[in-house]
Design brief:
Elements lengths: L1 H8 L4 E4 L11 E4 L3 H9 L3 H14 L4 H4 L2 H20 L11 H9 L1 E4 L16 H13 L3 E4 L2 H16 L20
Antiparallel strand pairs: 1-2, 3-4
Helix pairs in contact: 5-7, 6-8
């Protein structure tokens, strides 16, 4: 079918297929259209078969079978990475830290961006607080598909948000989570 697609569209293609874990039973293989195999040798200095073997070695060293890829801990990592990289990309700031506790003030008010499309039924909190694989899957899939994404607020949207926030502050409603009091508060320190 790949060659048929090549004939109809004129594309060049290389398809590498390998197992993702040492215990997986699939046999690694490759296929190319036209003279695409020559590309690997001409540009990278390796035959396609060698590239496929290296690809298999790399995939197996990731040490994740299907169950491990979808563990709750791994989903937490994927969600954290997706949220953080999206925030860095939209704010153009490196090493920015997502603040779930004070999201409205620390993120929305400060940077003028908002996370849109958070899935219903999933608590808006640090990913490590998501307790079920189903909820973590739902959020990870929303982030990967683009249905949950970072949005830059327009000037009017931001002004409206800040006005609402100030109204809540004036009404003495909690806008920002208070910091935890030190256990030795009030005690003289050296």
């Amino acid at each position: 079918k790949l060659n048929s697609l090549c004939d109809h569209t004129g594309i060049y293609a290389t398809l590498l297929v390998t197992r993702g874990h040492i215990n997986d039973s699939i046999q690694s293989t490759w296929t190319t259209t036209d003279n695409s195999a020559e590309f690997w040798e001409d540009v990278f200095g390796h035959q396609i078969a060698d590239v496929t073997c290296q690809y298999e070695q790399w995939a197996c060293t990731q040490n994740q079978n299907l169950l491990e890829r979808d563990s709750l801990g791994n989903l937490h990592k994927q969600i954290t990475k997706a949220v953080s990289s999206g925030l860095e990309k939209i704010t153009h700031k490196k090493h920015i830290i997502m603040n779930y506790h004070n999201y409205e003030t620390a993120i929305v008010e400060t940077y003028g961006v908002r996370l849109v499309g958070w899935p219903e039924g999933v608590k808006f909190a640090n990913p490590s607080m998501i307790g079920t694989v189903a909820e973590a899957h739902k959020l990870r899939d929303a982030l990967c598909s683009g249905s949950c994404f970072w949005k830059k607020l327009s000037k009017n949207e931001l002004e409206l948000f800040v006005t609402e926030l100030n109204t809540r502050r004036a009404a003495s409603k909690t806008v920002r989570k208070p910091r935890k009091k030190r256990s030795d508060a009030g005690v003289a320190r050296k």
